[in-house]
Amino acid sequence: MVSDLEINEFKNASSSKDGKKKMHPSKFTLWVAIGSLLMMFAGLTSAYIIKSNREGWTEAEIPKVFWISTAVLIVSSVVLQMALRSFKQRNMSQYRLLMGITLLLGTAFIFLQWTGFQQMWNEQLIRFKGAGAGQFLYVIFGLHALHVVGGLVALVIMFIKAFAGRVKLYSAIPVELMATYWHFVDLLWIYLLIFFIIIN
Fold first, then answer.
1. CATH number attached to the domain at 29-199
2. Is the CA virtual torsion 42, 32, 109, 95 positive or negative?
3. If you compute the radius of gyration of the chain from its CA atoms, what whole number of angstroms results?
4. Residue 4 CB: number of other CB atoms within 10 A?
5. Do residues 85 and 102 lie in contact, with contact meaning Cβ atoms separated by under 8 Å?
6. Whole-angstrom Cα distance, residue 149 to residue 187?
7. Is the separation of the CB atoms in 126 and 134 below 8 Å?
8. What is the pLDDT of residues 63-74, one digit of tens each?
9. How far apart are CA 159 and CA 153, in angstroms?
């Protein structure tokens, strides 16, 4: 007969295996939020397609500085992934350095975006009256920039924590969440840029 001890050991082993399959609650919440953001931007781009077929629609040329900002954002995503790997390897000095570089690149992206919007405004590509692509560029790209700003705030907090004393618990969950969100805004920006290029 099987002893009670063996039965308990089997139950513990089974529960531990099941626990490994479960997604962390924070990760689940993040993916739900990402799904909601995808639906929002899908709705905005769909509205763009519908309105672009109407009479009196005016196209808008995307500033070249947006291409530079795209390259900066992609590099920041790669650097952040390297920072995650460094954290998992417990190389904290390299992790701090890479997080600092990611923070600088994210700030540079926002600055380049602002420069692009100023260029569009000066060239009178954005109109608040009538129908035109400039309005959608302003709203959609502006919303994306706000989400990047939110990511920057999270990066600042994590960067400060990286220097705030000695790390005792090497839980990679916060860094993984940050990396996932940052990769998302990166891919979202690439999608939006390609979308407007193809539609225009």
1. 1.20.120.80
2. negative
3. 22
4. 8
5. no
6. 16
7. yes
8. 889 899 999 999
9. 10
Query: In angstroms, rounded to a whole number, what is the distance separating the alpha carbons of residues 180 and 29?
Result: 12
Alpha-carbon distance of 167 to 160, in angstroms, equals 12
Distance, in Å, from the CA atom of 187 to the CA atom of 200, rounded to the nearest integer, reads 20
Residue 1: which H helix or E strand, with range? none
Residue 10 confidence (pLDDT) above 90 = no
Residue 101 backbone phi and psi in degrees, to 5: -65, -40
Residue 85 burial (CB count, 10 A): 16
The C-alpha torsion from 75 through 77 and 81 to 83, rounded to 10°, is 70
Q: What is the amino acid identity at position 193? A: L
Find out whether 108 and 72 touch, Cβ atoms under 8 Å: yes
Dump pLDDT digits (tens) for 19-76.
Answer: 456 778 888 888 898 898 899 998 888 887 777 777 656 666 778 898 999 999 999 9
List Cβ neighbours of 13 (8 Å cut-off, separation of 6 or more).
Answer: none
The domain locations on the chain are 29-199
